[in-house]
Amino acid sequence: MVSSLYLTHGLMLLSALAATAAAFPECRGRVVHRWWPALPALLAAVSALALIAYPTWGELKNPGLWMFAIIACVAGVARGYTLNLDVDQIRGLIRPQRSFDGTLAAAAMSVLAVIELVIAEVRPEDQPTMELGLTLAASFLVGRAGALQFRAKDEPHADLADPSRQARA
Q1: What is the pLDDT of residues 63-86, one digit of tens each?
Q2: Within the chain, how many helices (H) and strands (E) appear?
Q3: Residue 1 belongs to a domain
Q4: Which domain holds residue 71?
Q5: Is residue 2 part of a domain?
Q6: Please, which residues have CB within 8 angstroms of residue 120's CB and are 6 or more apart in sequence?
């Protein structure tokens, strides 16, 4: 039997799982490098785009999908601006408030990616894709990360421990 799974399915799943793993330090309120919140957002965007762009790039022209993506991105920006944030301007470190929203959005992407894979394998002929769910979660994470990055440059300095030194201690 020939499988109905493609490389894009693998890219989608691996990116979603990596986004979930990368978002995990935020739910614990850990000190991370300033660029770290952008990593789960980037991986989430890759995951969503891998599903949307398959089998053709024509799906990227769906205005309804992008309307919901913009709304989710605005919600992510609002959430990014409401998070308490400590910033070490000298070392380039941040400590976002302990929150679960980023990790939950990334975990939802992983669950949706697994559902997409199962449906693609079991019933490929009438496969409803998880494009909307993946796009909503990815857009939320992108907006949230963008707001955190934008805010971090203007936040007052706070001395934070280097995360690489915390691992050795």
Answers
A1: 888 899 999 999 999 999 998 888
A2: 6, 3
A3: no
A4: 7-168
A5: no
A6: 4, 5, 9, 127
Q: What is the pLDDT of residues 142-165, one digit of tens each?
A: 999 999 999 888 888 878 776 555
Q: CB–CB of 142/44 below 8 Å?
A: yes
What is the number of structural domains in the chain? Answer: 1
Query: Amino acid identity, residue 137?
Result: A
pLDDT digit string, tens, across residues 105-121? 999 999 999 998 888 88
Q: Write the Ramachandran bin of 92: left for phi over 0, alpha for psi from -120 to 50, otherwise beta.
A: left
What b/e sequence results for 132-157 when a residue is b if at least 16 CB atoms lie within 10 Å of its CB, and e otherwise?
bbbbbbbbbbbbbbbbbbebbeeeee
Residues 6+ apart with CB under 8 A from 51: 8, 12, 113, 116, 129, 130, 131, 134
Q: Residue type for 157, please? A: H
pTM value?
0.86
Could you tell me if residue 55 is inside a domain? yes
